Amino acid sequence: MTDFRMPSLGADMEAGTLVEWRVKPGATVKRGDVVAVVETQKGAIEIEIFNEGLVSEIVVPVGGRVPVGTVLARLEGAAGAREPAAPPPLPPPAPPVSALPVTPGRPRISPAARRLAAARGIDIQRVAGTGPAGAITVADVEAVSPAPGAMPPQRPGFDPAAMRQAIAAAMSRSKREIPHYYLSQTVDASAALARLERMNRERPPPERLLPAALFLRATALAVAKTPELNGVWEDGRFRPGDGVHIGWAIALRGGGLVAPAIRNADRRPLDDLMAALRDLVLRARSFALRSSELSDPTITVTSLGDRGADAVLPIIYPPQVAMIGIGRIVTRPWVIDGTLGPRPIVAITLAGDHRASDGHRGGLLLAEIDRLLQEAETL
Amino acid sequence: MSASASVPMPQAMTYREACKQAIRAAIIADPRVFLMGEDVARYGGCYAVTKGLAGELGEERIRDTPLSEVGFVGAGIGAAIAGMRPIIEIMTVNFSLLALDQIVNNAATIAHMSGGQFAVPLVISMSTGAGRQLAAQHSHSLEGWYAHIPGLKVLAPATVEDARHMLQPALDDPNPVLIFEHVMLYNREDVLDPNVTEVDIVSAKIRRPGRDITLVTYGGSLFKTLEAATALQQDGIEAEVIDLRVLRPLDMATVIASVARTRRLVIVDEGWKSGSLSAEIATRVVEEAFFELDAPIRRVCAREVPIPYAAHLEQAALPQTAAIVAAARGLVRGA
Amino acid sequence: MNAAEAKRLVFDVLSRIAPEADLAVLPGAAHMREELDLDSMDFLNFISALHERTRVDIPEADYPKLFTLDGAVAYLSR
Q: Which residues form the Peripheral subunit-binding (PSBD) domain (chain A) (predicted)?
């Protein structure tokens, strides 16, 4: 017998309201299944389970508001209990019914589902397959992202005032507890933009990349080399992350902000990261994020985009220990081989938690991002 | 009663009787039409399709031939070129192999070789398929071979209605047309709609609409496939059943439109898998509709053995309803 | 595609990206990205949706031509 408890979806969460059960007593669940929807200050979040077993009892009924850690349901035959911070659901392994070779790491997905996922910008790594041999089908993609026009009705429970309160609490705590240091580096973005222009020229719009995808990839690779900045500060000491899980700050239309995780961002190719970005933005704005996405980030990135300010000095999201800001790309005079010329440049900034790291390490991180962006062709 | 007397009544009829009525009507309607083959006149046909017709229509129009497929098919080709509209009956597709040279090298090519000067408006009908314990030399389904040949049209009537009405458009067609009658269909009975007086020999037909999976079949396997669709419905799976009707040229537009709706395809064919009609359909769907597919294509076909004589082995070698159900369920449910 | 169809299509796509916006009062010559607060991802989704619905290829170099409602309608009804 194992207890399934109200998870903590960030340091600022104290309680949640159960708005929907996706399983009934007697149901068999496996790691990664979405079993409930919980209303938090960040809106309604799909809650995943990290055990296998049989749901023997639903303890908290729909409508119940309970503190983090409260038992929501009981499982029989559950093993390997591990609270949040577990990897997202991978497509289930293919049962050995077919003679087809299974390529490790490559998700099994039908042609129609692949086309649909591309059209809707869905990251297929996040879709669990229910088709033949565990393949991802059209229905699986649609379950993650309904057709445009059939956008999910705004979930119950999103209250802009409550989100404001949550941001206020988290940011106040950050400024109260975290001794920030700030660094800034101005980077020549011409190599990155040249690569994007060349790639996008040959692609239809749904497959095109934004500069954000290149910045994300360069940042993730640099963070992987600077483990002191990737993790959380808990109980008076630094605990490194179990991977580079980049929280991507997404502004919600009408106000508010969430920063769900792109897991193992340093190990994912460019197109994959772009798909992940599109998927996260879409789901964040339709309030269909999952619990692990909110509890997982090990560092956060905010990219201001082409209508933002030139530079940002970020406030670290606790308990993380660093945050990276990417400003707007602007054309400015730049010295090239001793003469002045116009160049697209971007200010990349870092806020670091001085308890966990020193400015020198932070500087190395920014320098590495710069170096990678100068070699954008290889990113 | 007088008002309804002029309205034709729906009539129950066997597939065998429908074949016979089709021949009878065609011969009465057109003096150029005649039928010839082995044992068709005095004996009445090995499946009794022409029983009694020789007495009614005369042995000029229903003609017994010597036991030489190459001879009487060749004679039919000559008669067709000379202006007649012959129906050649070959006992089974297995015996048609003796006439392959006439069918493939002559009937199918003469219009082409003569620069369009000579058409061969010939109809060849034959039985096909297994299920009557006639053993390997009388039980194979070789219609897929003929569907390989440009210059031929290949029909596979599965319903009583098609058996009754496909012959006339086949005779009207300037090309040689092969009609395959599955041996297990002759005794099937159905009510013939008197308002239907003609059918096309161009299109496949949706025999049962459904949204979850497409089952493509033809001929003798149609009814097993419809049974499978009924069983699947009890599982909540709505199967669409397509009867190809015409094996060459294939009406892929109907198949692909269906697959685009259901995104899943099972092909049921009593032919073997290797180098077959089912392989051709699967390939065309992959070529033309790859991105519509939401699951691999599956085939339910005869086992790759000569069809056995023993009843239990014969049944084990043929596509059966349970196998169709299992294949479809696997694609929809992800078994 | 005529101008009326193009305008309907643009409104349909925009209403999904910015559901809260009142498109009826969107000035034809105004910069849509400013007016509707579209970030670069929103704008890429806008272009992608137009491409998927019309099959018109819209190279990046042409993006500025679609910054206004009038411009987008003119581009699609060329």
A: 108-145
B69 catalytic, yes or no? yes
Whether B138 sits among the annotated catalytic residues: the reply is: yes
Do the Cβ atoms of C20 and A305 come within 8 Å?
no
**C37 CB contacts (<8 Å, ≥6 apart)?**
A253, C18
Q: CATH number, domain at C58?
A: 1.10.1200.10
Kindly report the nearest CA distance between residue C55 and chain A, in angstroms: 9
In Å, how far are A160, A271, B277 from A44, measured between CA atoms? 12, 29, 53
| Contact call for B293 and A110, based on CB within 8 A | yes
Sequence ranges of chain A with CATH classification 2.40.50.100: 1-81
For the segment C19-42, the average pLDDT, to the nearest whole number, is 85
> Which residues from chain A sit within 8 angstroms of residue C58, using beta carbons?
205
Distance CA A150, CA B216 (A): 32
Residue A346 near residue A326 (C-beta atoms within 8 A):
yes
Which residues are CB-contacts of C7 (< 8 A; sequence separation ≥ 6)?
C69, C73
Average pLDDT of span C6-16: 87
Q: How far is CA A189 from the centre of its chain?
A: 24
Q: Where in chain A is the domain with CATH 3.30.559.10?
A: 180-378
Q: How far is CA B287 from CA A97, A357, B252, B280, B290, in A?
A: 25, 57, 11, 10, 6
We find that the CATH architecture of domain A180-378 is: 2-Layer Sandwich (3.30)
How many other CB atoms sit within 10 Å of the CB of residue B109?
16
Q: Closest approach of chain A CAs to the CA of B260, in angstroms?
A: 9
Put simply, whether B287 touches A (Cβ < 8 Å) is no
Class of domain B205-333: alpha beta
Look at B334 and A133 and tell me if their CB atoms are within 8 Å: yes
Q: What is the pTM of this model?
A: 0.54
User: Count of domains in chain C?
Assistant: 1
Render the burial of C26-57: b for 16+ CB within 10 Å, e for the rest: beeeeebbebbebbbbbbbbbbbbbbbeeebe
Question: pLDDT tens, position by position, for chain A (379 residues)?
Answer: 788 888 887 767 778 888 888 888 888 888 888 888 888 777 778 888 888 888 888 888 888 888 888 888 888 875 544 444 444 444 443 333 333 444 455 778 899 898 888 777 778 877 888 888 788 888 888 887 765 544 444 445 567 777 888 888 888 999 999 999 999 999 999 999 999 999 999 898 988 999 999 999 999 999 999 999 999 998 889 999 999 999 999 988 777 888 999 999 999 999 999 999 988 888 888 777 888 788 789 999 999 888 889 999 999 999 999 999 999 999 999 998 899 999 999 999 999 999 999 999 999 999 999 999 999 888 8
Q: Give residue C8's domain range.
A: 3-76
Tokens linked to A112: 């129609």
Q: Do A205 and C33 touch (CB under 8 A)?
A: no
Q: Do C39 and A149 touch (CB under 8 A)?
A: no
Chain A residues lying within 8 Å of C50, measured CB to CB: 205
Contact C34 A307 (CB under 8 A): yes
The tokens of B201 are what?
């020999």
Asked if A370 and A185 touch (Cβ cutoff 8 Å), the reply is: yes
CATH topology for A1-81 is OB fold (Dihydrolipoamide Acetyltransferase, E2P) (2.40.50)
Report the Cα–Cα distance between both ends of chain C, in Å, rounded.
8
The catalytically annotated residue of B38, B89, B138, B143 is: B138
Contacts of A121 in chain C (CB under 8 A): 45, 48
Q: Tell me, which fold does domain B11-192 have in CATH?
A: Rossmann fold (3.40.50)
Subunits touching B (CB < 8 Å, at least 3 pairs)? A
C42 vs chain A: nearest CA distance in angstroms? 9
ipTM confidence: 0.89
Pinpoint the residues of chain B covered by CATH 3.40.50.920.
Answer: 205-333
Selection from B59, B43, B27, B72 nearest residue B167 by Cα: B27
